[in-house]
Predict the structure of Heparan-sulfate 6-O-sulfotransferase.
Amino acid sequence: RNFYYITILRDPVSRYLSEWRHVQRGATWKASLHVCDGRSPTTEELPSCYTGDDWSGCSLQEFMDCPYNLANNRQVRMLSDLSLVGCYNLSVMPEEQRNKVLLDSAKENLKRMAFFGLTEFQRKTQYLFEKTFNMNFISPFTQYNSTRASSVEIDEQTQQRIEALNFLDMELYDYAKDLFLQRYQYMRQKEHQEARRKRQEQRKILRAKQAHRREQGENSSSTDYIGNVERW
């Protein structure tokens, strides 16, 4: 069997708001082990943002204020190799160095994936998936712009705060978007070149058939003429 790693990225602000709404309704990640280098993080390394059974009903301000919130830069953390920075132990290296290592690792792993898509480009994502794996979906993807995250109205200050909390994800998404569109354009050009090659081959075959018919017609006319001369 062949196994391929794929993923879907989303605009960091929309993804952050969506996770907040999800948590607000009572969702937790208690079943997530967060195992890194063969061990789970201690409570000191990974404190909880809430004390009860869940964090349901939390406000967006509370969600943003928790310094241990794993929603911050979640896409970079999930795509990077955490063992490079000592997993969840923040004392292993300076914060600036840690952020750079995580971001570089996430970019490299994303680039090496067989395929990745973007939530904001559903049709292009479908096209790339089908061309990459040579298979077609039964139905076309639909671009839903109206989501729970889009229904949340935030002011410019809150927008900037969310972007600051997810600054690594913001940079990763810009990188991913550029790479994604490059791959899309490459596939489109490759498809156009293949279509042009097929048209050229079809024209060659058509010209060869036409030349063959003309040759047969000339031979037939010559044979008929000689036969008539003999009869005359």
In short: The chain has one domain: 6-191.
